[in-house]
Amino acid sequence: MMNDIKITMLGTTSAGKTCYMIAMYAKMSEGVKGFTLGTTDPDKDIHLSDMWEKLESETGDSRWPRPTGEESQSYQFDFSYGFKRLMRFDWLDYRGGALRDDSSKKDVQDLTEQLLKSSCVFLCVSGEFLKEGANPQVVKKARIDRMNNPFMQKLTDSGRVVPVVIVITKYDLCSHRSKEQVLKDIRQLFNPLFAKGEGWPVMICPVTLGEGLANDINSGLINPHQVHLPLIFAIYSEYLQNTLNKQNEVETVYQTTQDLEQELQEARSRGWLTILIDDFKGRDPVGNVRGKLKQANQKLAQHSAEFEKLATRLHLLMQELDTEAVSIYLDGEELRMEK
User: What are the start-end ranges of the H helices in 158-280?
Assistant: First the structure.
């Protein structure tokens, strides 16, 4: 099992953070290519499922969850493949007002602490702010200035560069614009994340709970699109790093086996006088090296099997990151995922 990680989502009040989490959980609970999501707390599973059922079955303003109160809600999720737990991650659902509060407030401190420990950050921007294009009013209303500084600045100051997902929630509200126009606005609003040479891996992902909600928010059909992809990207990024680390381990152990093979060959080619002296002193260079080589080969087989398993799951996650639905960047350059 891989190490536990933390995911933090930044966004202002009414950006749709809670609704997004509920939809994401519902989608991943069903399973995607064998991958599933579950809470470690059965009561929170029931709570999230009830909120999702209310969204789907009810109409009117009451279908929507109330804004997050003064107390932030924390969730712990298990990410599994074939119902075998692979990774556990923490998710903090905080009130959007924390983006405007001063640093002395407890929820701001909790958010900052979570952010600095995060393996991936979701930056949440509502489609309602992208209806007519980016401008200074959008920056203020969506609190993008606060997301960039101090929060993302604090992460940078800590010496960490982590994967970032810019989640465009309520995409149905700006879907009348071309994808290229919206992407251009996002790159402008969060331009430091697209600075060349700074190493930020960034995914821009539009999500919606239903295309018809733009015209009828209280009785429109709930039919979520792409809500699972930000999480898939976060897990993919962690898997990619672990796969690369495991590959390095395989290469290191392989080199050790090659060195021991050479050492064994040299031990076998000793002169007769050296063999007599070694026998007299009870030394067995050939046997010692052969034992080390056996252990190294066993370790190589283990690491190679672990690498193959990681690479297989990494490929499955990569397949789900459809570049037609999302845009992925590194150092400001758009990448193409090879399927």
Answer: 179-189, 229-268, 272-280
